[in-house]
Each structure stands twice: as C-alpha cells, then as structure tokens.
Predict the structure.
Amino acid sequence: MKTLVCIKQVPGTTEVKVDDNGNLIRSGIDAKMNPYDLYAIETALKIRETQGGEISVMTMGPPQAKEVIREAYMMGLDNGFLLTDRRFAGADVLATSYTLAQGAYKAGEFDLIICGKQTTDGDTAQVGPEMAEYLNIPHVANVKKIVACKEKSIVLELEMPTTIQTVEVTYPCLITVEKGIFQPRLPSYRLKKKTKYQEITEFTLDDFKDKNEKRYGLSGSPTQVEQIFPPEQNTTSERWDGQHLGERLYNELVELKFIYKNK
Amino acid sequence: MAKIVVNQKNIDDIDEAIKLCPFGAIEWNEDDRQVQISAACKMCMICVNKGPEGAFELEEDEVFIDKSLWKGVSVYVDHDNGEIHPVTYELIGKARELADKINHPVFAVFIGSDIKDKADELLHYGVDEVFVYDDEAFKDFRVMPYTAAFADFIEKVSPSAVLVGATTLGRSLAPRVAARFKTGLTADCTILDIKENTDLVQIRPAFGGNIMAQICTPKHRPQFATVRYKIMNAPERMDEPQGEITYCSIPENISSQVNVLSTKEKEVEEDIADAEVIVVAGRAIKKEEDLKMVHELAKELGGKVAVTRPLIEAGWGDPKTQIGLSGRTVRPKLIITCGVSGSVQFKAGMTNSEYIFAINKDANAPIFQVAHYGIVGDVYDVIPELLAKIKQSEEVTA
Ligand SMILES: Cc1cc2nc3c(=O)[nH]c(=O)nc-3n(C[C@H](O)[C@H](O)[C@H](O)COP(=O)(O)OP(=O)(O)OC[C@H]3O[C@@H](n4cnc5c(N)ncnc54)[C@H](O)[C@@H]3O)c2cc1C
Ligand SMILES: Nc1ncnc2c1ncn2[C@@H]1O[C@H](COP(=O)(O)O)[C@@H](O)[C@H]1O
C-alpha cells in the first residue's frame, strides 16, 4: 500500500489586517502545519498499521515549508517531497492542484492520496478534488470514518448535506478527511532524533513532465485578486431600550433572515 | 482550443503508447503510419504525464477568450433524492439578478434519478431553462458520473458563470468540474456582482476571515463560484411557471469506481460548536422550568441552547454546552444571550460570532461591549413577546 499525504504550512496566526494603503500586514511570522492536515497524517498512519506499506508526504511551498515535512517525519511518515520554485508563487486553487498533481506523478505511483479537509489560510477545501481530477482518479470528500481497508479498495463513511453515505472506492483514489476522524498523535522525540538528517526530496518545475511555465503559479491561475479590503465592521452596535423590545427583535431577526417568514 | 500533439520520434513502443489512454483515444493510423489522437480524447493528460518524455505534448493557443460565446448564468440544483436544497432557490434569485444586468438567460442543471416532476418546481423561481439529466446512474451522489453530466451540460450550453451551493456535495463537485474545464473557482463567496464585460465579481472573506478579497476570472470561462446557504435571498415563488425544461441524453462512460453501499440519515449533533444559531441562558433565568422559553426560542430559530457556568453548576445544563474559557469556543452566525453578564471568561468563547444579540436588564453589563445589538430589557418580557410574534406569523402563513 502506497499512500501520499498532502500537507501545507500556514501562518501561525490569523490576525491579519489591511493598512490604509490596502496592503496586508501579518502580525508575527510564525508558521505551522495546517491543523486539518494532522488528521490526514493520522489517517494514513492508522491505515499503515493494518495494511503495511509506505507513506509519503508532499507540500508545495517556499523552502522553509520543509519544517512541516520534518514534523510529519516526527509523527512517523516515511518519505518527504517538497515542491518549491519561484515560478509556483501566487498559485490559486487550479495552479496549486496542477502543481501537486505533477508532483504526485513525479513522486511515484500511489494507491491512496489523503488531503486535509481545508486549509486555515486558503480555506477553500477545493485543492483535493481538483488534484484528483488532474490525476484522473475518483475522489471522496468529507470522509469522517474509515470503515474497512481492503487490498484493492477502501470503505468509507462520508458526510453529505443531510445524510451519511457509506461507499466503497477502488484504488487509486483521493480522499479528504474531516477533522476528528482520528485523534492526531504528537510528534515523538525518538523519531525527531532518528529522522533529524532524513532526506527531503525537492522538485522544481524543471523536474516535472510539464515544463510549461504558463501552467504554474500566478500565470497558471485563472482567478485574480483584484483588491482586498477590511470587512464591514459591526461597530454599528445598537442599543435598544423602551417598549416592545421583543417585537423589535422579531423584526430584526426576520430582516437578517434568521426567521423565515414563510417557511 | 488546446490540443495534444504527438511527437512520433519520441515513441519507442507503439503498443504501450496506445495502452496509455483510458478512453482508447490513442490510435495507430495505418495509412499515415503514425500514432494519432481521436475525438475520444477527454484531455485527461494521462498520456502527457505518464507517456514517454516528449511524446505527447499539450499545445495551447494563447489564451484569448471570446466572452460573447459564453452566455447565461447557471445554477447547479443541489438536492437529496429529488428534495431540492433551499440554497438552490437563493442562487437562482442571485443568478436572475446578475443575468438581467448583462442580458443573459438563467439556466439550471438538475442531475439525479427520478427527478422529472421535481424539475417543474424550479420554473416558479425565474429560470429560463432547466437541463435535466435523469438516470438510474445518478441515484446516489457519486462524483464521477455527476461530473460527467455537469461537463456535458457545460459543453452543450457554454454558460458564462456557474453558481453552486457550498454544501458538502457542492464543495466536492464544483472543484472537480472547474478543474475539468481548467477554469477558476472561488469558494464561499459572500457577495456577487457582474461587470458589463460579463466578468463575475466574487467577494469572499480571505486569510482567516478578517479581510475581504474581490476576485475575478478575467480570461477563462465558465466562471465558477460556490456560495453558502443563507447568504443570498430566495425569490418569491411565482404562481405561474415560466421557462422550459430540456431533457438531456445521458453521456456515455459514466461508470464509477465508487460504490454506494448504504445511506443513513444524519443523527442530530449535540456539539454546540457546529451550531449556526445559539441561544444562551444566563443566571437571569431564575428557575429550571423557565429554561423552557429559551429552548423554545432555540427551536424556532433552528439553533441550540447553551448555558453559562453557574447554570451548569446548578445542574440545569449539559457541561458540553458551556461556552467560554473552560467550555467551548463558538462562532455561530447568530448568538442571543439571555441574562448573561458577559464575564471575561464567557466572552472568551464567543466574541467571534457573526451577530451578537444581548438581552440584559443592566445597561452597564459588560456583555454590551461585544454585542452588536444590546437590548436593555427583562428576559421575562422580551423572550415571551418574541415567541408570540413568531407564533403569530406562523399562523398567518399556515
Ligand atoms: C477560571 C474560570 C473559568 C471560567 N470559565 C467559564 C466558562 O467557560 N463559561 C462561563 O459561562 N463561565 C465561566 N466562568 C464563570 C464566570 O466568571 C461567570 O461567573 C459566569 O460566566 C457568570 O454567568 P452569568 O452571566 O450567567 O451570571 P451573572 O454574572 O450572575 O449574570 C447574570 C446577568 O443577568 C442579568 N439579569 C438578571 N435578571 C435579569 C432579567 N430578568 N432580565 C435580564 N437580565 C437579567 C444581570 O444584570 C446580570 O448581568 C469561569 C470562571 C473562572 C474563574
Ligand atoms: N500548497 C499545498 N501543498 C500541499 N498540500 C496542499 C497545499 N494546499 C492545499 N493542500 C491540500 O489540500 C487541502 C485543502 O486545501 P484548501 O483547498 O486550500 O482548503 C489541504 O488540507 C491540503 O491537504
């Protein structure tokens, strides 16, 4: 069984603001592993416990993103791949997925690819499904439970809008896992020492089969951020007193669509 | 558009090359004595990626898009066994508004099994044409067959923009289809507008929610956006249906490696952290039986009840429903606190809520510092009056 886990390094804080000139200010430069990806790693480890095999981990990011691969090694993953190149910068969902798919082709053949549910910075939950499309394999999103792992397939429970589905998927396939599927283990000190010098394989655009720069980074991104601005503040905090406050509250809740008038 | 070119000299083993394609689109042409790609090509890129170095190459024209060839604002009909999810109507309302600005039609694409009669309902909400893919293969949601039908719709209709509800299903399906057309997708838009040149203006919170970003897809079509439930307004249902229904033939090759074994109803979740609406009872509640009105209010709003620590200690609530420093952190769309003072420990767990309504009879209560709506009044007056208004409106529309 060969498994690939995709992880991302995200800013350690979500305290981001816009200054008067419309530029992003990030307070603090600390970075950490996307918390949702810890569940993807734990899922892979749980599957390895019963099925054996090897788990690789891959991230696209700047050179310092190596840190999250080190952390994954400390949790017990086997091989690490870092996709790093200036030409990957500014990638939107499509370009990110394409880069990850190219990286996956380069890194080997995988039976199962596991992604986190979403990232705390991109926050789209779209990279997994788009990557699966590029790899031409099926995907199952919002997996909340691994029911059984078989030689050629995996049985999963997934979250649908109003129901829970149990499905069986044959390999190769990609899954995105919900937070809480398993409790992620902590990095181990023993593994930290053991993997301190373990190699991390780096790929740049030149290592990929598709070397067309137009498909990566900003130039490979169909969506463009035109501008950023602070959200409308709810500083218009209102103060009500007097009579008929219940009725006023009712009207306001209807206005805000928390009460559906004709339900 | 883009095509795959075959560089014959880089192919050593012709049989191996032909086997690369899962759709059988790589063929040997006996007349020209060369390998070629037939119309069965799905642009899946497997030959480009897995084939011999340099043998199959993607050749793209300089991206120039004739936007006038892409017409219509489309909505994906989100449903569960034919039961249409209300986000669909909200998106139709938005689609109509956008389409009217640029003089485009509104389309809906409805993929499912045994849904023919359900499609009629959509015509009461302002759709010009509903494209229905009705087949046994779409009985349960499986991403590959649904993607195939969705892709067929896009090829047939060439819509300018496609709106999909950001349900668990929509968030799985939309990226798949967007990637198939190598186009942009913006998740969880909170504001949508459209420019004269048909570029969709997509606004969403970014970087963790403190900042809004305005995003466009200027050089690609269709433009995909997902929107959460309860963000847009659903139009009023019209008595007379308008528009037409088109039944589409089912694309071939809709097999799937996914097998649905069973489907069960979701259990009601107990965790208040996931609730979109929370009503909190504080120490203003004098007797345990008075909690009834709080529960009733939560039920009417489709939300959950939480209590402050003193009430937990009194045994009036489940410890799992405590909000605050030593309880849960919540971030619902709506939180109504009923007689809560707003201690630092309590506020630590809820200040990020989207709308904070606080009812407290003490005008100086610290909860008012974080409330968007500070209601200075007695919970024993305000809540019963509110409940009475809700009941009254239900009777009118029933
Ligand atoms: C380390 C630590 C951790 C803690 N963690 C938590 C925690 O996680 N969660 C938590 O909730 N608490 C926590 N507490 C306790 C916290 O400090 C407060 O004691 C508690 O939140 C107060 O609850 P309350 O607002 O319901 O009650 P009170 O502080 O007694 O407030 C009651 C309010 O109701 C108003 N009121 C009374 N009657 C009416 C009426 N008829 N109509 C309208 N308003 C009325 C009053 O004006 C008053 O403001 C913690 C404390 C410590 C020390
Ligand atoms: N740069 C990246 N490198 C590796 N994996 C990523 C990257 N971006 C996103 N992913 C994966 O895709 C998932 C969803 O991310 P997102 O679509 O940004 O919410 C994450 O949980 C990761 O598993």
Observations:
- Chain B has a mean pLDDT of 90.
